[in-house]
Automatic annotation (TrEMBL):
It comes from the Bacteria. Residues 164-225 form the Metaxin glutathione S-transferase domain. Signal peptide: none annotated. It comes from Bradyrhizobium brasilense. This is Glutathione S-transferase family protein. Residues 18-114 form the Thioredoxin-like fold domain. Pfam families: GST_C_6, GST_N_4.
Amino acid sequence: MITLFGFGTGFGLPEISPFVTKTEVQLKMAGLDYRKEKAMPPASPKGQLPFIVDDGETIADSTFIRAHIEGKYGFDFDAPLSLQARAQAWAFERMIEHHVYWALVGARWVDDTNFAKGPAHFFDGAPDHMRDKMREDAQFRVAENYLLSGLGRHGPDEDVDLAIRSLFALSVQLGDKPYLMGDAPCGTDATAFGALAGILTPFFDSPLRERTEKFDNLTAYVGRMMRQYYPEFAWAPLQQQAA
């Protein structure tokens, strides 16, 4: 059986990391049995989550995990798509992972209130005399990466403005379809769902979340994907809609 290593439930989400969520949903899409274990990034060969162990083979990085699933198990995540649509799906995936994701990082890690509420607790188990320093160092490293991504070079309103342009593109692509590329889910839906759910979780307050909530089709899309792939999870926005 495949073992998937991730952060686990938290921040109002079935999985804290959008990249682990991507891989977990793709495992579900492929109908593969797996078990899940908690880990922290230093345990991974590439220093990031997710990674999987499959028959003694360790594969790190969600994109390479997808390639492993396709190669070993013969599952084509983009089977319904034409060659042109496959290329478009890949382009949207790159936009999500290299632009939208960093907006999410800024909202979680760079905003001091959200950092204290969320990621700072990753270090709760550290020795008392090291805990504050580890938190400070981690936030600094992530903020530095945020700067290098490009978004962090802009003001708080400007970075959200740029992220919203990418989210607008996703909203237009989705339209009134059930999935990004049509009537059936593809691999990029797992990527989009992980990032959008991470932004929309009510656990964190942010201008990014507030403005993303205005895209009705994206919020409805996350609700559908949550029901389909995590039916046992109580997704708070759905509860709020029903109230």
